[in-house]
Write a structure and sequence with these properties.
- By secondary structure, the protein is mainly beta.
- It has 1 helix and 20 strands.
- The protein has one helix spanning about 5-20; strands at about 30-35, 35-40, 45-50, 55, 65-70, 75-80, 85-95, 110-115, 120-125, 130-135, 140, 150-155, 160-165, 180, 185-190, 195-200, 205, 210-220, 220-225, 230-235.
- The longest helix is centred in the N-terminal third of the chain and has 20 residues, at about 5-20.
- The radius of gyration is 24 Å and the shape is elongated.
Length: about 260
């Protein structure tokens, strides 16, 4: 390879690198022109052409919601794009807006996606770039946890179970009527038989009927109430962890 060829190769490589750097979604700003929306960068240069009827801001510099209006149905359908304007979710659904990021796991969490025709739910996992097409009758996406476990509802039985969000592999059977958020390797779920403590290794422990478990779990303990509506703590083995019952217990955020 001669010097001229090397120099041309280097310039092409550098240009490609700069193009990627300049596509940082931090600089992509929703912009409207002639009743269509696209994205400009911080220099007011068009980065993604005007083509949609709605554009949101980007979440975690990775993804944004876009929408198209249909005169035939007099409604909007929505999809999700990446920082290059490519669809990661087709523009065919209703997508929960990013304003509720505190519920959907901050900017690196999820989008809740609904199928207009079948009224089924799916989600998009931003961190793992994973799209679950709407197939569940309910999706409970709580604050994102290290195990990336969420709960979903089987449309055939209306029972809830837990899955790993980035591959949909089951963590538990669909046998619960109410599920709590996954927190530090465990969760509380209500079944027709009673309440259970669920663990990430697949085991579960039934909570005695004389207690009612609060869904909040902190450092291997969760709040319970007894038959007299007094408050105590229980561990993940199902054993009461306090010798004294209180009128009220509340977790603090402080470590």
């Amino acid at each position: 390879m001669n010097n001229l060829t090397k120099n041309i190769f280097f310039i092409l490589f550098l240009s490609s690198f700069l193009l990627i750097v300049n596509c940082n979604a931090e600089e992509l700003i929703p912009t409207e022109k002639n009743n269509k929306w696209g994205y400009c960068n911080g220099k007011d240069e068009i980065s993604i052409p005007y083509q949609w009827d709605y554009c949101s801001e980007f979440r975690n510099n990775k993804t944004a919601i876009v929408g198209m209006y249909s005169k035939e149905t007099d409604s909007m359908t929505y999809g999700i794009i990446d920082a290059f304007g490519n669809y990661v979710v087709p523009c065919e659904y209703f997508i929960q807006s990013g304003e509720s990021e505190s519920y959907f796991g901050d900017k690196n969490g999820y989008y809740l996606i609904k199928d207009f025709n079948l009224n089924l739910y799916g989600y998009f996992d931003i961190e793992n770039n994973y799209f679950c097409t709407p197939k569940y009758s309910g999706v409970n996406i709580h604050l994102k946890n290290p195990e990336n476990i969420i709960s979903v509802c089987d449309p055939n039985t209306s029972f809830w179970g837990y899955i790993i969000a980035n591959n949909e592999n089951p963590v538990s059977d669909f046998c619960y009527i109410i599920t709590g958020p996954w927190n530090n390797g465990s969760a509380i779920a209500d079944s027709l038989e009673g309440q259970y403590i669920l663990l990430s290794d697949g085991n579960r422990v039934m909570i005695p009927e004389i207690y009612y478990a609060n869904y909040s779990i902190n450092k291997g303990l969760f709040i319970i109430t007894n038959m007299d509506n007094q408050y105590g703590l229980m561990n993940l083995e199902g054993a009461v962890a306090t010798h004294t019952w209180y009128d009220y217990i509340e977790y603090c955020d402080n470590e």
